[in-house]
Amino acid sequence: MKHWFTYPLVTHPCNPEFMSRQGVLRVARAAEAAGFDGIGFTDHPAPSDKWLNAGGHDALDPFVALAAVAAVTERISLIPNIVVLPYRNPFIVAKATASLDLISDGRFVLSVATGYLRSEYRSLGVDFEKRNAIFDEALEVLDGVWSHERFQYEGHDFVAGGVTSNPRPGHVPIWIGGNSPLTRRRVAAHADGWNPFPASLQLARTARTVALEGLEDLIPMLDDLWIQVEKAGRDRDQIDVVFTTGRPGPDDARFNAEEHLEAIEAMTSLGITWTNASIPGDSIDRAIEAIERYGSEVIAPTRT
Asked: Domains along the chain?
């Protein structure tokens, strides 16, 4: 099992510490020292006030933030959680991904999804109703421009004639996020990992997704994923699966490391390969305390 967390910009307004250079670098260094295998940043370039004031959260640009993390770490994987792929022209995503993979010595994982905020799509000038078609088109462009010296493609809103884009990365793992059967078919056909979205019934309605409240909900989805993987002629060992233990995080008075370790054992038996820890976002000091505690009480025992 590998361990990661999303940088804890989890509220609006956020504590300004979390949008500072020192905040990002301190958290990144602490994560690597504690044994975490990855760190992620969310993607909200144009969130609406309505969403922010209804429980949304602020965000740094994930490519910029992860470039800063790359500069002060040596081992930890850089995993946006997630890049909303239709928000950007796919050639922009391909260039940013290849550049970040290069300067991090191959540590970038491109975790993507279609997103759900209609207002953000509107602000960015992208048709929300076409998001699935745009997403699939982007996957084709990423593969093509990274694989061919002179790549041509006619998209919904662009025509690329003979594009050569350097640097061309080695193999950048692509994870696809989401809870729908369509997501799992995409993973089986195109991706290296599935990053489902833990969501209560209420959150699932807001995010226009399938509810996913724990392992009991995940198991039938996993069964479907493995069927799709077999149909695609692939081995399930080729696919990373990301989930959470669902237990209170290391900043919570109810935190119990043994419960996390038991849950991790159960998750591993189901083919889950990455678990996402919950880190507090009220102060950098508390975040680092939680990172260190999780490292010593959960990560370290799994490495002995």
From this structure: 2-303 (3.20.20.30)
Write out pLDDT tens, residues 244-299: 999 999 999 999 999 999 999 999 999 999 999 999 999 999 999 999 999 999 99
Percent of the chain with pLDDT over 70: 98
152 has a pLDDT exceeding 90: yes
- pLDDT (0 to 100) of residue 304: 67
Q: What is the pLDDT of residue 146?
A: 95
Determine contact, residues 90/84, Cβ cutoff 8 Å: no
pLDDT surpasses 70 at 193: yes
